[in-house]
Amino acid sequence: MRKSLIAIAAALTCVLAGCAVDGTPTRGPIELQTGKYGSMQTRSAGEATSDVAWAKLRAVRLADHMIFAHDLDPVMVDGKLPTQPLATPANVQVVIPDTADLPVMKDFEYGFTLSSGNEKNDAGINHAVMVFRDDAAASAAARQLSDVMLKRTSYSNYERVRVAGMPSESITVHDAGAGGKQTVAAFTPVGQRLIYTWADDRNRSWPERIVKAAYDQQKPLLDALGTVSDDRRIDPDGLLTGTVSEDGDSSNPLHGAVYGQRAAALFYGDQSAALAALKKSGIEQFAWNGTQLYKAGSEGQTAGWIDYLVKDFEDDSSRKAASPQDLNAARCLTRDGAAGCFVAVGPYVGEAYGKDLADAQQQISAQYGFMKKLAG
Fold this sequence. Notes:
Layout: E1 13-16, E2 30-33, H1 51-62, H2 69-72, E3 78-86, H3 89-92, E4 108-117, E5 124-132, H4 135-150, E6 159-161, E7 171-176, E8 182-190, E9 193-201, H5 205-223, E10 257-260, H6 261-265, H7 271-280, E11 285-288, E12 292-295, H8 302-313, E13 319-321, E14 331-335, E15 338-345, E16 348-354, H9 357-375
Antiparallel strand pairs: 1-2, 3-4, 4-5, 5-9, 6-7, 7-8, 8-9, 10-11, 11-12, 12-16, 13-14, 14-15, 15-16
């Protein structure tokens, strides 16, 4: 499930001595089957020294102040792409194509976008907050970005409209596309930030309601932001070192980052329910790389979060699966085309997904070793 940057072909068996990880005496050494992942511990992240790294770090922090799609309408239960930090003008093109070279994008600093749809996949939203150099740039961005959308093409026929209740500075457009889909998009500057929401459905009243609700819910979150942190440390507590690094030639823009509590909830279908479960487990930080790591409030709060992860992974095709060799404490499941494994070490919860059970087992076994080092 995870796309990655680095492929290390060497396989490694992590050998520990003494007792099994669940405390049961054994007759021989413990051999965790980690495959190639045993040598793929994520390095310490250090500081965001480059412009792009600094933009991504601020975007990741902004994610802690984004709306929840499920709160706009409970039918929005299926997370979609793009959902990611926006660190460059090129990133913005995954939200609105043909915009990277606009004059105003020279003043673009960072942003975050999220997307969601319903189970039938006949209605959906894309929402973003983009931060610009100053208020004037954000207002110019509303005009220039909407102008791109208003250009007539063989597949697009947007026109400016008004949506009741939206502020006067908002620019709203509508397109009655092929197949009866009604699309509404709104661009609303709020200080140096731009709130953008796109929604579509067969009934025009639904996307109009969604863009209004998105603005109404997003603005208070931005108003409460306060002073933006100038701390350039990507991972002050070293949580990423408790994960497996990316494996491959491409990089997931969500990886290599540590997200706050509310941001962590963004990646679940019912974000408010996820946030409640995160709070119950005392989880305030979530590290995401090739595998994922959560830090609970205490060792006693990890089991509840693992229960939540297992339930979230389950569907009609899922089945309980064997724990990895010599790692009986790990819980694993399979479902059509994927497998997941979960384990706790002290206050930490590790989460790994693979294309099959053996792959997920190797990842969680490797992550277990990294988590032991992190826990000390």
